[in-house]
Structures are given as structure tokens and as C-alpha cells.
Design a protein that fits this description.
Mean pLDDT: 91
Strand order of the largest sheet: 14-1-13-8-12-11-15
Oligomer: single chain
Number of domains: 2
Structural class: alpha/beta
Strand content: 15-25%
Helix content: 10-25%
Radius of gyration: 21 Å
Shape: globular
Low-confidence stretches: 1-20
Length: 344
């Protein structure tokens, strides 16, 4: 190809890309508002939400705490390289919509109420797409009716599972029919760019590990999909893990200012186990595509391949498991409409 023609093609491609962005004001508005104004205290701000509650001073340490932490540590490899914050393929893209947003029916193919097939009147803005990993999570917040629509295995007009819950609720599906294994909303416990810029996180975090307990769950989980059977050290979904209250976070050697922000949240609020993953320990942040470009920068430098921020000095030896009661098992629950989405 002639070099001048090749240059023109490149320039035209760039113009087309920019014009597509310019012609999508709903997406730009969503990204701008989420970048500037939103954090984890604005979703599920009901005082009953356990993610917003600091760990009380009279908490009880789990009797198997040391062995449970050691099992997680061993699952992360000999150099603990598989410990990270995930803000890409296996995270949650979030989009803001309102009552004027074009509506769509989303057929639910796997987990759905009896005699119902689709969630109808879902407001989906132009350019909204699911995460790129195999889970294909996606969430939409209608800022007018205060409903969060959330999906797993989302593709255009269908999803493997989906449901909705009010932003003013505690964010937990009593019947367990959520899009994460533990039964709470996938927006619970995410790290947001605004929180890193302001220097503090005022809520608990959500994490996944590969060594979850298949025999049951603990509060605040309402269901589970654990991986390990009959292992007393496996992590029940719903488990709360914290950094010990006696630790001085600023004195932990070799950690960045961003890591200190995360670890202070883990000390005050802890992190809840919400799902089973393939390997290691993953703390979720809201997906980068939810925000304006480089919203997380310079706080987090993400791996170019996986979109993760490595916690290279993760303080396993400073962790402990908070006792949340005995294992619970889930019997089949009748469908409970959260009063937020319309089914048909």
C-alpha cells in the first residue's frame, strides 16, 4: 500500500474512533459521573449493610484462623505472585442510566424464577458491554428509580443469570439469587478510583479465592459454590478476614501508599469472601471501562495482560479470620422478588 494512503487510513481510523466516542454522550456522561462522584458508600447505603460496618472491638477470632490463612497463603504460589486487585476481565463494568434510557429485555438462560424467562425494561446505554473474562459480569444503575440491574454471562439480549436490587437496600439477596456465589450484589465491596484519590475506603472489600468451602457458608452470605469438601480449613463464602487491629499499617515495610489505603480498609472493615476463583487471592475493584481513561492512575499500575494490580507484599502473617458463626447450608428457597426489576 502507498505510504500516504496508509497514513490517511490510520488518521481516518482515529477520527472514526473519536467520533464514535463523541457521538455517545450517554457513555461519556456515565463514565464522568462514576469517576468523579461515586464510591462504595453510595451503593447499598442502608445501615443494615454489613459492608458499611466497622469490625467491633469485641469480635471473636475463628478457632481455625491460623490454618485458614495458611491455606490461602499456600494457594497463592511460592512467591505469592497471585495476589492482586482485579479491575478488568473478572471485575464488574458499571453503567449509569435513567428512565429515559432505551429499554431492553434480557433473557435469563440458567438461573431464573419459576415460570419466568426475562427481565424486561432494562435500561442499557449505548456502548455498555460486559467484562471480557469468561464470567462476563455487568451492572447498570438507574439513578432515577434507584435500581441496580446486574448480570452474569451477559451478551446483548441474554445472560446466564440476572437480578436486581435497590441501591438503598443492604445489597444482599435473601434467596441467594444473585450474580455472585455468596448471594450478595456484585457491587458490594468494590474499590473505586475516587476512594484511592481521596486516600481512604470506608467499607469492607470483597475477595475470591480458590480454596473455598463446599460444605456451607456463613453470614452475610446466603448461598455458596465452594470448591473443597470436608476440609475444616477451607474458606466458607461469607467469611470476614481482617488485618489485626494492633498492626500499624504505615509501618508495614515495602508497601505503596495505595496498598496502605487498601490495608487500612482491611483493618477497619475487613474483606468478605464472595466467590471461588481459579487460583490465588483476588480483591475486586470496579472495572476500568466504567470510568474515564486512566481514572485509577497513578495509584494503580495495571498489568497489561490481565488488568490486575499486584499486591506483592500482601501481609498474610498479619491477617486473622473473624468468627461469623457455624456453617449454614442452603435449602431451595422460593423466589423473592426484590421489588426492583420486572420479570416476564
Amino acid at each position: 500500500m502507498n505510504k500516504s494512503i496508509f497514513l490517511i487510513v490510520i488518521l481516518m481510523s482515529g477520527c472514526n474512533k473519536n467520533s464514535l466516542q463523541d457521538n455517545n454522550p450517554a457513555l461519556v456522561k456515565s463514565q464522568t459521573e462514576l469517576t468523579t462522584n461515586w464510591d462504595g458508600t453510595l451503593v447499598f447505603n442502608n445501615p443494615d449493610n454489613p459492608f458499611l460496618q466497622k469490625i467491633p472491638t469485641n469480635y471473636t477470632i475463628h478457632p481455625n484462623s491460623v490454618k485458614m490463612i495458611d491455606l490461602i497463603k499456600k494457594s497463592c504460589g511460592p512467591t505469592f505472585s497471585n495476589v492482586h486487585v482485579n479491575a478488568n476481565d473478572y471485575s464488574i463494568p458499571i453503567y449509569l442510566a435513567d428512565n429515559s434510557t432505551p429499554k431492553r429485555s434480557i433473557k435469563i438462560t440458567l438461573y431464573k424464577p419459576p415460570s419466568m424467562e426475562s427481565i424486561i425494561n432494562v435500561p442499557v446505554i449505548q456502548g455498555a458491554t460486559a467484562a471480557g473474562g469468561t464470567d462476563k459480569h455487568m451492572a447498570i444503575i438507574n439513578t432515577e428509580n434507584k435500581c441496580i440491574y446486574e448480570f452474569w454471562l451477559f451478551e446483548n439480549n441474554k445472560a446466564g443469570s440476572g437480578n436486581g436490587i435497590s441501591i438503598n437496600s443492604n445489597g444482599i439477596y435473601a434467596d441467594g439469587r444473585s450474580t455472585v456465589a455468596a448471594g450478595w450484589s456484585q457491587l458490594q465491596g468494590l474499590i473505586w478510583p475516587k476512594e484511592l484519590k481521596q486516600g481512604f475506603i470506608n467499607h469492607a472489600l470483597s475477595f475470591s479465592v480458590s480454596v473455598t468451602n463446599a460444605n456451607g457458608f456463613v453470614y452475610p452470605a446466603t448461598k455458596n459454590d465452594g470448591a473443597l469438601s470436608n476440609n475444616p480449613d477451607a474458606i466458607p463464602e461469607g467469611t470476614l478476614i481482617r488485618i489485626k487491629p494492633t498492626v500499624v499499617i504505615n509501618d508495614i515495610p515495602g508497601v505503596t501508599e495505595t496498598e496502605k489505603i487498601i490495608y487500612k480498609a482491611l483493618q477497619q472493615y475487613g474483606m468478605y469472601c464472595g466467590d471461588t476463583n481459579g487460583a490465588g487471592l483476588s480483591i475486586r475493584a470496579a472495572h476500568t471501562k466504567s470510568f474515564l481513561k486512566d481514572a485509577y492512575a497513578p495509584a494503580m499500575q495495571f498489568d497489561a495482560t490481565y488488568g490486575t494490580f499486584s499486591l506483592k507484599k500482601f501481609p498474610f502473617d498479619l491477617l486473622e479470620v473473624v468468627y461469623s458463626g457455624p456453617l449454614q447450608t442452603r435449602t431451595t428457597q422460593p423466589f423473592m422478588n426484590q421489588g426492583c426489576v420486572e420479570w416476564k
